[in-house]
From TrEMBL:
It comes from Brevibacillus brevis (Bacillus brevis). Belongs to the peptidase C40 family. GO terms for biological process: proteolysis. PROSITE patterns: NLPC_P60. It holds the Pfam family NLPC_P60. Residues 88-129 are annotated as: Disordered. This is NlpC/P60 family protein. Residues 1-30 form the signal peptide. Residues 88-102 have a biased composition (Polar residues). The lineage of its organism: Bacteria, Bacillati, Bacillota, Bacilli, Bacillales. Keywords: Hydrolase, Protease, Signal, Thiol protease. Residues 103-112 have a biased composition (Low complexity).
Length: 254
């Protein structure tokens, strides 16, 4: 069969029966079921392989998203906190910050005359009992908003170190005002040695610097009791989270 295209060029198309051959212009042409099957199978194999690769890629993406979901959530929560450079705590020069929301006169505390810069004042009660009291006192403030630079004279808002100072004060233990000073009192403990009631100190997320930017109370059972960002006073998991990655040291003041 002869076809003519728009350019005037003719093309000859010849149909060859399956299993036969044709000699044309000195060139032999043959058609076989095997060659057709081979060509068709090759095309199907390529399509199946492409589809399989697309499935593998999709599964890989989904697995990656799932693996990172918890950490992404924690990172987002962290960046709701006031960035430190200044991160979460007052420096010694900022201790005179006044509270914009007023003070709670029924729970105002004064500076103890016997407080020392590098030592916590303890009581004579058993340490386990005091630790339970610390957690109990802290939990009653659950939901109180976080506010950077909160006055130590109020319980209407807290930053991380004013919260720890307040809670320990209520069980008879005096702590310095900011987290960097608090990280120097008591006995240093490792992550594996943490007990209920210990102070836990953190550096900034992703930082190699050992500069303290946050403090929490270890509440036992892999839980931290602290305040930050949007949740305010809350409890969060410790091990297996970004908080564990930020861990700098623990301090036992009970």
């Amino acid at each position: 069969m002869t076809k003519r295209n728009w350019k005037g060029t003719t093309t000859t198309v010849v149909a060859i029966l399956m299993g036969t051959s044709l000699l044309m212009n000195g060139q032999a042409y043959a058609a076989s079921e095997t060659s057709l099957t081979s060509t068709t199978t090759h095309k199907l194999d390529k399509q199946q392989k492409k589809h399989k690769n697309e499935q593998n890629l999709q599964q890989s993406i989904e697995a990656s998203v799932e693996d990172q979901s918890n950490e992404q959530t924690e990172i987002q929560q962290f960046y709701q906190m006031v960035q430190d450079g200044t991160n979460n705590d007052l420096t010694a020069n900022e201790e005179s910050t006044t509270d914009q929301n007023g003070t709670d006169s029924s729970s105002t505390i004064s500076d103890p005359s016997t407080e020392k810069d590098n030592r916590a004042t303890n009581t004579s009660a058993p340490s386990s009992d005091i630790a339970d009291q610390v957690i109990s006192k802290g939990l009653k403030y659950k939901g109180v908003p976080y506010k950077y630079g909160s006055s130590k004279k109020t319980t209407r808002t807290f930053d991380c170190s004013s919260f720890t100072q307040r809670v320990f004060k209520e069980v008879g233990i005096s702590l310095p005002r900011d987290s960097r000073q608090q990280s120097k009192v008591g006995k240093k403990v490792s992550k594996d040695q943490l007990q209920k009631g210990d102070l836990v100190f953190f550096r900034s997320y992703g930082s190699s610097s050992s500069r303290i930017t946050h403090v929490a109370i270890y509440a036992g059972d892999n839980k931290l009791l602290h305040t930050y960002g949007k949740p305010g006073v809350t409890t969060t998991k410790f091990e297996g989270t970004s908080w564990e990655k930020r861990f700098e040291l623990g301090r036992r003041v009970i």
